[in-house]
Structure formats: structure tokens, C-alpha cells
Amino acid sequence: MVAVLDQARAWDAAAAVPDPEVPCVTVADLGILRWVKLRNGVAVAGVSPTYSGCPAVLAIEMAIEAALREAGFDAEIERLLSPPWTTDWITDEGREKLRAYGIAPPVGAAGKGALFSDPVVPCPKCGSTSTEKLSEFGSTACKAQYRCTACAEPFDYFKCI
Amino acid sequence: MAHLALIELADDHLILGHRLSEWCGHAPMLEEDLALPNMALDLIGTARTLYDHAATLEDAGRSEDDLAFLRVEREYRNLLLVERPNGDFAQTMLRQLYFAAFMAPFWHAAQDSSDEVVRGVAGKASKEMAYHIRHAGEWVIRLGDGTEESAERMAEAVEELHRFTDELFESSPEAEATETAGVLPSRDRIRAAWDATIAEVFSQAALEVPEVYPQTGGRAGLHGECLGHLLAEMQYLQRAYPGATW
Question: What are the C-alpha distances in Å from A53 to residues A30, B72, B82, B210?
């Protein structure tokens, strides 16, 4: 019983860590934090990197480890490459937080990468669907740059992968 | 021996990643200045995991950094294509298209690898390479079917780089052994998918697939002069201050 409570407490501590690039969402919202297990008294967190070369991976792992230690656990990180992280793992709450922050959440399910096709991305400010892609890559690898042609707002789109 | 095949693959990604990073601060527009280093990060991230895994399999006390920074030119086994200088934007985009059009189906097939780490890398990299195809493909079309000058430069890029593409489908003896063991997909089997992607992009870009005399040698460590210059810059810190960490 204590172990179960401890495991839940460890999860809560790790899950509250914000993403360093997009601090409006937590690592749990993004689905980067896969699980937290107690293993021989050590809280082990399973973490999936978003992109192969995401420079935030190390920062995220260190932040989760620090949060677990602060909650009184010995902590370890297990990096999980497989199955690969997908934007499908972003929770509904995470999507809502992204939109409120001004980042359009991923549209549709990941996987069907046609050679030349772009999704219709609604503007996170005014909701209009008349938007245009400015660049496949935004300030980070996980985002593309869009502009709303209705309200003229430039915005980031969290790419669907 | 699987570690040697993984090092070849890692070398391809590291060297092309370094080439793309050379555009940082020099790209023709801000969007591309962000896009190219982002794609470089994808490639370098993939290279890191492959080097790390190769070092583990080799079990000779070398680290991923040793493999990346402490080998000499002849020990690099990357494709000649990826070491080619950036040239103009047309050449950089075409080189990227050639590479990504191969790696996307390669990584897709590698998701069935018998090696767990390779499966993990493949899952991520196949998605990332699909983006690289789109990005580079759209540029090749825009330039090839663009102004008189852009079309001319794109055609020159094809003439310059197409001869390096045959090497994509060659397997070294080390790679062949991993293909038999089910660790990596057979490179030769990727040709149909590569041909189809290139044909689709070229037809929209008003470009012709030329007849070329293939240039190979990278997998045997026989490189162009350009690789030495690249390594001189990339390895500078570890050469000047051996063992430096921060």
C-alpha cells in the first residue's frame, strides 16, 4: 500500500515538470514522461525523447531527476527510444494548454506522411482555418511556422509526427 | 562486426549533419536559417545513438565522442555524397533530397530490425526523414521549375551530385553481414523506393535523371579532399585540447 502511494507520489512529482522549450505544458501533458516505477527503492522514470537531436532531452531528464529527488526519492532516468514518441501521446489537456498559449496543437493522427500535403491548421488566436505555412521549421524542430490570413497573427504549429 | 556497419551509418549522419550546420547564420532567409540547423540536429542526434551503440557492441573502451572526434579521414566510412561541399542552395537541397529519399524507406524497413536500439532509432528517424524529403523536395521543385537562373543552377547541381548516388545502394562486407543477420535492411532493396521519389520530384521540377559514371569509395575510406577540411574544423577542439570536457 505504501509502495503504491509512493509510486503515485513519485509520478505526481515527475509529471509536474514543465517542458523547457514550451513551459505551458508539462512532460506528462506532452507524453514524454511514460511511466514512473519504484525499483528497489529507486524511482525510475521512463522518458521518450521527442526528436533525435532535441537539445532539450538532457535538460528534461535532469529536471525530472531533480524533481524526484526533491520529493525525497533516489531517482534514475531510463531513456526510451522504442516505441518512438508521437504527437498522438499529447493529452487533450496538453492540447488545450498549447492552444491557450498561442501554439496550434497537432492536427489529426500521426503517421500518414504524404510527400506533399499540409494539414489545415486552425489559428490558435481567432480559430480561422484560412492559415498558411511560412516554414516547415519554427524556433524548434517540433514546430512549424504559420500565419493566419484572417487575423494576421503569425503562430507556431506543433507538428504532427 | 555489426559495430562497423553502424559506424558507417553514423558517419553518414554526422558528416551530413555537420555540413548542414555550416549553413547556420548563412542561409538565404531566416526560415531556412532555422530549418537547416534543425535538420542537422536530427542527423547528429541519430549519429550519436548509433555511435554509442556501436561503441557498446565494439566493447573496446571507445566512446561516441572518440568515434566522432578521434578518427582520421581514412577511418571514416561515410558516403561521398554527404561530404560534398554545400555549394549553392540548389546543391545543398539536392544532396539532402538524395540522402533523405534513401534514408526514409531504409529506416522504415529497419523498424523490423533484430536489434532493439536500431528499431528505436529507426522509428524516430523514419518520421524525421519524411520531413527532410518534403523540405528538400519542395525546394528542388521550386528551384528546378523556377527562374531561368534557378533552373540552370538546379540542373548543374544534378550534374555535380548525381554520380554520387549509386553508392547509396552499395553494401560493404560489414553491412552485408548485418543485412543477413537482420540488423539492417538490405541497401539494394531500397532502390525502387528511391527511384520513385526522385522521379516524382524531378518530373515536377522539370529535371532529367542523367546518365552518370558512378563515383564510389567512401565505404572503403577513400574520400575527396573536402572531407579532410571538414574534419579539421569539426575535430579542432579535441585535437587542440585532447580529452577536453565541459
Answer: 17, 25, 18, 35
What is the pLDDT tens value at each position of chain B, 246 positions in all?
Answer: 799 999 999 999 999 999 999 999 999 888 898 889 989 999 999 999 999 999 999 999 999 999 999 999 999 999 999 999 999 999 999 999 999 999 999 999 999 999 999 999 999 999 899 989 999 999 999 999 999 999 999 999 999 999 999 999 999 999 999 999 999 999 999 999 999 999 999 999 999 999 999 999 999 999 999 999 999 999 999 999 988 887
A93 occurs within a structural domain: yes
Domain of B156, CATH number, reads 1.20.1260.10
A145/B31 CB distance under 8 A:
yes
Q: A145 near A157, Cβ under 8 Å?
A: yes
Same domain, A9 and A74: yes
What gap in Å lies between CA B108 and CA B14, rounded to an integer? 20
**Looking at chain B, which residue has its C-alpha nearest residue A133?**
B31
pTM of the model: 0.90
Which ipTM did the prediction report? 0.77
Interface list for B 106-145 with A (CB within 8 A): 116-117, 119-121, 123-125, 127-128, 130-131, 133-135, 137-138
CA closest to A140 among chain B residues: B38
How many domains is chain A built from? 2
Range(s) of the domain holding residue A138 = 89-158
B128: chain A residues, CB-CB within 8 Å = 51-52, 161
